[in-house]
Amino acid sequence: MRRRIISALFALSLCVTAVSCGGKPQEEPAQADTEAEAETELQTEETTTTAEETVKFITETEFSETETEAPPPEPVRLDYWTNNSPAGGICDHIDRITDFRSDDFIPEGERIAVFDLDGALTGIDFTTDMILWRVLDDDTFEADEAMRETALAVREGRKDASSAAALADEAYAGLSFDEYKELVKRFGESSCPAFSGLKYGRAFYKPMTSLIKYLDDAGFKVYVVSSRDKTTMALLAGDALGLDEERFIAPELCTADEDGMLSIAAAEKYSKYEAVKDALQQPPVFAAAGEKSITLAQYAAKSSYSSLSYVLLRDDEQRDSGNAGSAAKAQQKADEKGVEAVSEKDCFDTIYGYDIIKIVDTKNDEGFTVDGVEIVP
User: Fold this and answer.
1) What is the CA radius of gyration of the chain?
2) For 188-205, what is the mean pLDDT?
3) Quick one: what percent of the chain has pLDDT higher than 70?
């Protein structure tokens, strides 16, 4: 401290000497012609100390033989990410592009982020699971024995999801559009049978929901894209993600007909990249893609601003319904495309929450479910 004060006194004496010798203060610099020069001026203004301020500093500072340095601020860290995850790099990048003094500064209106709901925010197939819930668990619906047998076979893995999709028309027959929306809300409050303690309306990756909130706090407009019905996904995910329906980019498959009754359109081939491109009319500056939507991450790289993008590898078979084989193929494709991949197994400290436990069905040699379940912590 004493050394700093002596240096300040010396600087003050030089200023006084210069004035007494006829020196003149510098004239105001001309207004900057470029944004870079303006940023330099801002930096200069913040670091300039006048002689009067120096005197005030000296007179208000007590002399001390010792000085205790303040501890450095805690580094910003996203919740639910591991220490070897890219969370720190993400925070550093966001800090840089939101700092108006930075060469990488992005105006708030241009800060757009996109997340692949189906591949980067959850491992749950909501469309299929809602049909199974309607047939097997909804007390307000009486399914016939054939429907129940098909739904049970899908839930147990003896039939694939296409068998459940064939039940949709009958499962939702006679519902108005408003009744369907209420049904979606009730489904969101129901428990997911694959996990202990998890409700469908909260079945989203905790690290990613933390990241969405972080971006929102940093002035980003966050969008999610899905190949599933827009109304259904907005009702299920909107609250957990903190997003309104207008932030969901998805096909409108469930709508009201002229009489207000539910009308379900057949799902067609859907390009998330094209949907985002059409909806936003510009590349996002942040993208979290799923294993099957790497083009979303590539699209972000086309932004004229400093961008960041990842593809999430769903490789955790113990805590999530991941598939290590599919994740390995996605890793190879990401490497070929120059996209950084993030492993949920290595980078997520938790998947759906620390109190959520995956229930693994015990299977026989043919791969069919038998009595008994194993709890995986």
Assistant:
1) 29
2) 96
3) 75
